[in-house]
Write a structure and sequence with these properties.
366 residues, alpha+beta, lipopolysaccharide transport protein A fold, 2 domains, seven-stranded antiparallel sheet, elongated, LPS export ABC transporter permease LptG, transmembrane helix, LptG, cell membrane
Length: 366
């Protein structure tokens, strides 16, 4: 048990040092980028620093696999060079038993990242996007989904706004049913309401079918001034790409809220493949980190000297990045529906862990 605690402390210390160094480097680089990007827009030092602090957790979270790779290589090289693994084997402990403590620490890191860091990153990234959008004058998201349906916002006549509500929508939100358009003046007062059986986004306009329009401005009796049209085109600068991007990245949604958000998207008629893929890939992250540690152990746990050490380190990094590439490729296939979502998320880390385990059994335990 003492040996396991020792290896666990070494693993945690290695990850802490690597993670701390990367956090400092990321923060300094992002501080320079935020100052360059927003310095001309009137942002002071305080605002630039706050943007950096809000953006840093997300950048560090994206680099979590790299942090695990580098910390595992540093740990195993240190154990090999100090002959601690030789002593461990001489004491009757196999390499696999010696790896239990590092694997447990990495598993805990993965679970903490999933349960704690993921919601934190979602909150900080959302705050960062809001503050950056305010400085860039990009405006807020144009789309929202709740239990009542889909809500869209677009520029209206003049400097006003148009709010769109639909009971259901197609997967890309370009075809709506049970739709209502409410236009507002620049002062925020409603000027008209349009109900339609269906609406579809065509280049430069929303094309409404079976539309009825009520003026809400100065008309004393809106129903008396209402008009009906079989086809009505309303100008719009929205594009399918803008609507899709306005959902926001699934990473901006905390892992605990993602299932409910997926249910709301399904109820509104949207495709949820991208969000389901992200959810499953996040659940598989701890297993993916374990696979990376096992791959690093295969190449760097053995005692070696001279240029052979550098070659083994490069091979370990190359093998880990190959698994990372295959995982991302599988995620793309899952998002496009080429393979099942669960298979795309879980097959690469499980296969990588199995191959690494086989390599350890062959090289270390005969």
């Amino acid at each position: 048990m003492t040996l396991h605690w020792y290896f666990a402390r070494r693993t945690a210390a290695s990850f802490g040092v690597v993670g701390g160094l990367f956090f400092i480097l990321i923060s300094l680089a992002d501080l320079i980028e935020q100052a360059r990007r927003h310095g001309d827009e009137g942002a002071g030092l305080r605002e630039v620093v706050s943007l950096t602090l809000f953006n840093a957790p997300g950048s560090l979270y994206e680099l979590l696999p790299l942090l695990v790779i580098l910390s595992a290589i540093a740990l195993f090289l240190g154990l090999a060079r100090s002959s601690e693994m030789v002593v461990t084997r001489a004491a009757g402990r196999s390499a696999l038993r010696a790896l239990l403590a590092p694997a447990a620490v990495v598993l805990v890191i993965g679970l903490l990242a999933l349960a704690v860091l993921n919601p934190l990153v979602a909150a900080t990234q959302t705050e960062y996007e809001d503050r950056a959008s305010a400085l860039d004058d990009r405006g807020a998201s144009v789309i929202a989904v709740d239990a009542s349906g889909l809500w869209l916002r677009q520029d209206g006549p003049g400097d006003g706004q148009t709010v769109i509500r639909a009971a259901r929508a197609s997967g890309d939100a370009t075809r709506l049913s049970g739709v209502t358009f409410v236009t507002f003046s620049p002062s925020g007062r409603p000027t008209s309401r349009i109900d339609a059986r269906a609406a579809e986004l065509v280049p430069g306009a929303w094309r409404l079918h079976d539309a009825k329009t009520w003026p809400l401005g100065e008309a004393a009796v809106p129903e008396a001034a209402a008009t009906e049209q079989e086809i009505l085109d309303l100008p719009s600068r929205l594009t399918p790409e803008e609507i899709r991007d306005s959902f926001g990245a699934p990473a901006l949604i905390p892992i605990w809220d993602l299932p409910r958000f997926i249910d709301r998207l399904q109820a509104a008629g949207f495709s949820t493949t991208r969000h389901q893929m992200h959810f499953q890939s996040e659940l598989a992250m701890p297993m993916f980190l374990l696979a990376l540690v096992a791959i690093c152990a295969v190449f760097t746990l053995r005692q070696s000297r001279g240029s052979r050490t550098g070659l083994l380190v490069l091979t370990a990094i190359g093998a880990c990045f190959l698994l990372y590439f295959l995982r991302n490729f599988a995620l793309v296939l899952g998002e496009t529906g080429q393979i099942p979502v669960w298979l795309a998320a879980w097959a690469p880390p499980l296969a990588g862990a199995a191959l690494a385990l086989g390599g350890l059994l062959h090289l270390e335990d005969g």
